[in-house]
Write a structure and sequence with these properties.
CATH architecture: Beta Barrel
Distance between the termini: 46 Å
Structural class: mainly beta
Number of domains: 1
Order of helices and strands: HEEEEHEEEEEEEEEEEEE
Number of strands: 17
CATH class: Mainly Beta
Strand order of the largest sheet: 1-8-7-6-5-4-3-2
């Protein structure tokens, strides 16, 4: 019943937005609330995948998600500004600035939280440069659409070829994960949350014979609201994201996209699902930087009447950096 209510509520808002004066619903803002937009149909010219063919970057658009339109990410260490290109209504210069209050209270995470500096839409992002400077990762989402809206995810190799020193060995990489989570709330519209967690990946460069294999999981996930306050009702949700085993491209040390699945109830229940991919970084493959995107139903709190988790439609757009 809860999910049916969500579908009806979203359908009503979509219909209201589509009835505006403009012929293209992507530009029809709600006249009473400019934070709600119907994203309509993505234009045909929207870049997909790695637009410049650069094997040093993987984007969320590589995961066959046409709403993850960001196709460039850069960070200026001198100004502390993050630039995320190709997401609409985030300001003419695509500049994102660090939110010091939330970043400094983002649990134990060393990821920073960013917001777009201008534009009619409100975008939220998480970003981190690795301690070594070999890689960086960032993801973004918005609460300004009646559905999940646009967003982006990027993992970049900044140094080295990513090649591991021994191609006949098994490795374990561990590190941090962070995400933005777009929640379709039937009472409040789209709202944003943040997620922190840990990443573990296992790599075998000997088997499979020609491609090797890499896979792992995201665990220890903690949830925070848009103000950075931890959602303690979700502390016991006990879910994790599996990163299905996949191939390694030894020519450029990138990782082939594969399934990502959220499991709850100690691994007995399947939740949201999606895709992950990444790349190796550093002169000796010291790091893996990757992105994870899952969509589906997920918990947002506890129903006081039943004590059960309230589950709604969510999209979690995350990234990780793990070292060996």
């Amino acid at each position: 019943m809860y999910r049916n209510f969500i579908a009806l509520a979203c359908a009503g808002v979509l219909a209201a937005c589509a009835s505006g004066s403009g012929s293209n619903p992507i530009n029809d803002l709600d006249p009473d609330d400019t934070t709600l937009i119907d994203e309509g149909t993505v234009p045909d010219e929207t870049p997909t995948g790695d637009g410049d063919g650069d094997a040093n970057t993987v984007f969320g658009s590589d995961l066959n998600n046409d709403r993850l339109t960001a196709n460039e990410m850069s960070f200026d260490e001198d100004t502390g500004e993050l630039v995320l290109n190709n997401m609409p209504f985030d300001g003419d210069d695509n500049i994102y600035q660090r939110d010091a209050t939330i970043s400094d209270n983002f649990g134990s995470s060393t990821f920073d939280v960013y917001r777009n500096a201008a534009g009619p839409a409100s975008y939220f992002a998480v970003f981190r440069v690795s301690d070594s400077g070999y890689s960086q990762v960032g993801t973004a989402g918005t609460e300004s659409y009646v559905s999940f809206g646009y967003g982006g995810a990027a993992a970049q190799r900044l140094s080295g070829t990513g090649a591991l020193p021994d191609d006949q060995q098994t490795y374990v990489f561990t590190g941090e994960y962070a995400a933005v989570r777009t929640v379709i709330d039937p009472d409040n519209g789209s709202v944003m949350q943040y997620v922190s967690g840990t990443a573990t990946l296992r790599v075998d460069t000997e088997d499979f014979d020609d491609t090797g294999v890499v896979g792992g999981f995201i665990a220890d996930r903690s949830f925070f609201d848009a103000n950075g306050v931890q959602i303690t009702d979700l502390d016991g949700v006990g879910d994790f994201i599996t990163l299905t085993d996949t191939d390694i491209n030894f020519d450029n040390w990138t990782i082939t996209s594969a399934d990502a699945t959220v499991f709850t109830d100690s691994g007995t229940t399947v939740g949201a699902s999606g895709t992950w991919d990444g790349l190796f970084a550093g002169p000796n493959g010291e790091e893996i930087a990757g992105v994870v995107v899952v969509e589906g139903t997920g918990p947002i709190g506890i129903d006081p009447d039943t004590g059960n988790y309230i589950e709604v439609d969510v999209r979690e757009t995350g990234g990780f950096i793990a070292t060996r």
